Predict the structure of Serine--tRNA ligase.
Amino acid sequence: MLDPKFLRNELELVAEKLKARGFNLDTQQLADLEEQRKALQVKTEQLQNERNARSKSIGKAKAAGEDIAPLLAEVGQLGTDLDTAKADLAAVQEQVEKITLGIPNLPDDSVPAGADENDNLEVTTWGTIPSFDFEVKDHVDVAEFLNKGLDFESGVKLSGSRFVVMRGQIAKLHRALAQFMLDLHTEEHGYEEAYVPYLVNSDSLYGTGQLPKFGEDLFHTQAETEHGYGLSLIPTAEVPLTNLARDEIFDEEQLPIKLTAHTPCFRSEAGSSGRDTRGLIRQHQFDKVELVQLVKPEDSFETLEQLTGHAEAVLQKLELPYRKVLLCTGDMGFGATKTYDLEVWLPAQNCYREISSCSNMVDFQARRMQARFRRKGAKKPELLHTLNGSGLAVGRTLVAILENYQQADGSLAIPTVLQNYMGGLTSISVK
RNA sequence: GGUGAGGUGGCUGAGCGGUCGAAAGCACUGGUCUUGAAAACCAGCAUACGUUUGUAGCGUAUCCAGGGUUCAAAUCCCUGCCUCACCGCCA
């Protein structure tokens, strides 16, 4: 959510910045509603003031033993006037809120203008793209050959399309990856490990910005009612981790707060029906190790560079070639003001594919969540800044390893840093 | 799931339907005192929004949340959520 005062006072500037990310703000409508809101709010508060004053004088009169009947008669119409004013105000406020909750964050000035992913800016590449002296298989075929380690048929039987069963050494490798990532972030990058709920309430989803606009991307445990959806499955650990700060006021010295968690993520993939139907790339359920930081405003852009580096470290230690991309205005997520994507090299697709997305949300989520901190000696608390990034998507990392570490004989080499997690195993081969 | 108790400011904890944004204590901040510290004493100490050039003033709201009764609700009624205790069940 944007700063309502900024939105009000700089409406045209906001609209212009939003245009860069393909969002059209109806400034006329919003300005009209704001004007109504202001008038109604003043009116309502005046009526309330009058009612309070009169009620108070009735109380005093009664205490003094005076006859209060004439005073009561005077109040007469006030109550109903107040009720209608309140109702009118609530209706307008609801409209304003509906609009403001649906406005995405403003892009930072360092973000390149562009319409879609084709306008993203490649920042760096790392590693050398491997060459194979045999015909490369994609990850599905590599795993199929390795004792049917990825079992999509069973996924369909148990649940439906976009679900998978992993077995044997592939399942273990998947687990090893998550362990490795968590250990790296906690032991070398200073994050605190967290175990969090996989079901969250609607307040949490509003806080990080999944609701109200993106409800159809989530799995809900019950249909939407006026009280929300009840509990919903998390689409990312960003939701529970970031919402830990909701309605909190931290001391300045407590920041930055750095949290990591390994969780499954659930996405309905509504609107992606034809895309990436083969393999592990796009599943309804996948695991991810998430990084979240809560920082002081002046630190957030520097923190974005660091956090992205923490995600890059995973790829580097796994010796997977990747590139770092600065997303353009048109390709960023709803709450982000600046986002780097890390894209890993997939030999079978002969291209880079997204494996991590690291974003600075500045105060966008913090304002929704009322997540604040107080500077030493300061009276007023300030909104903090929130950042998050994948460090990394475990399923897609498994894909990258299956493809980049495949051998001519059909076996799979195990990246050095994972061998300890695999009981010393250096490769996986057919039984 | 059943029964009972309860949810008040950073914490503890008062609060006959009216002058309660809320006693008191603790914590915290500033000051007096002191060579310094402690103690003592004095003062201050919630958040959001609106109005406004204003971190001033004024106004409004907030005593778990949402409804209701009333001229007036922290206080009464209903619903929900949560906490605690005991019972049942369970990994």
Q: What stands out?
A: The two ends of chain A are 55 Å apart (CA to CA). Chain A has 14 helices and 17 strands. Residues 4, 38, 41-42, 44-46, 48-49, 51-52, 54-56, 58-60, 62-63, 68, 71-72, 74-76, 78-79, 227, 249, 370, 377, 379-381 of chain A lie near RNA strand B (CB under 10 Å from a C1'). The mean pLDDT of chain A is 92.
